[in-house]
Design a protein that fits this description.
With 275 residues, the chain is an alpha+beta fold. Helices cover 30% and strands 28% of the residues. α1 (5-16) runs parallel beside α7 (242-260) and α5 packs parallel to α6 (226-236). It starts with a helix and ends with a helix.
Length: 275
């Protein structure tokens, strides 16, 4: 199913009058999205860390990794980029830090796919726990990678009969009470061997476009990402006419001009210079 073309304009106008919009909040285009999957055994910890930067950040990460400036990221360059960052995924067991080892990294093969979130950085980590799990333990996880500009989702899995109470997530922090053997019997507690913090609901416009098969839903997006998703969908369309693209360009220019009126775009400096 394809949406009538005039609905694009309605959706975009709706973004401008959204009563929940906050012009001073960060946009998804300059946010990092993390999915961190951890597997706990009685003696080891393994992690798979997916990093997907917004399009305004993707070029910077790519350039940071591309040491020889050939626009291609080699395995050696990817490893060099990842090593300083792995300890930003902080894990403690009963207050004792867990020391990660970098097992492998998979880097996106195409920058444009990376920029729109269809390919992500995948970091694979492993560690030996400071002690063998017995009875009750407390695990704390903290994602310190660009924390003020990041959104983090967690997945947990256990083996060797390990169970855990429903974790408590606060932003980039996750607290887990882990049991080896017979779990505790605290009233109302729920025990798991796998758990996910949940896939965030797509914004209304994202959901509509996804159902129409126009935009991908490869990565989670916060509620203020609709404009970027809609405009990305516009440029990916294969059957639209030239007048439609002219309309899309006009709408994009109007949105850009309105966005420039919001705080933080140097209007005071420009006005002072002109005066």
């Amino acid at each position: 199913m394809r949406l009538p073309k005039y609905l694009w304009l309605v959706l975009l106008i709706g973004l401008l009058v959204n009563p929940h919009a906050n012009p001073t909040s960060a946009h998804s285009a300059d946010m990092y999205f993390h999915i961190q999957a951890l597997r706990i055994t009685s003696e080891t910890l393994a992690g798979e860390w997916s990093i997907s930067p917004g399009p305004l950040l993707a070029a910077g990460i790519w350039a940071e990794a591309d040491k020889d400036r050939d626009n291609q990221i080699t395995d050696a360059e990817a490893l060099m980029w990842a090593k300083p960052h792995i300890n930003k995924l902080e894990v403690t067991l009963d207050g004792v830090p867990v020391v990660w080892e970098l097992d492998a990294i998979t880097w996106p093969t195409d920058f444009l796919e990376f920029e729109v979130g269809e390919q992500t950085i995948q970091i694979y980590l492993k560690a030996t726990l400071p002690v063998t799990l017995e009875d009750e333990h407390q695990v704390h996880i903290h994602n310190a990678y660009e924390e003020p500009f990041s959104i983090t989702w967690f997945k947990l899995y256990t083996e060797d009969g390990i169970t855990f109470e429903t974790p408590i997530q606060t932003g980039a922090d996750l607290d887990i009470k882990v049991w080896a053997g017979v779990p505790g019997n605290e009233p109302g507690a729920q025990y798991h061997q796998n758990w996910e913090s949940g896939t965030p609901l797509l914004p209304t416009a994202d959901q509509t476009l996804a159902e129409a098969g126009i935009v991908p839903t490869a990565i989670p997006r916060p509620q203020d990402s609709e404009a970027r998703t809609i405009l990305t969908g516009l440029v990916r369309s294969e059957t639209d006419t030239v007048p439609f693209y002219i309309m899309a360009l006009t709408v994009a220019l109007v949105l850009g001009a309105l966005h420039a009126l919001t705080p933080g775009h140097g209007k005071t400096i420009v006005a002072t210079y002109l005066l």
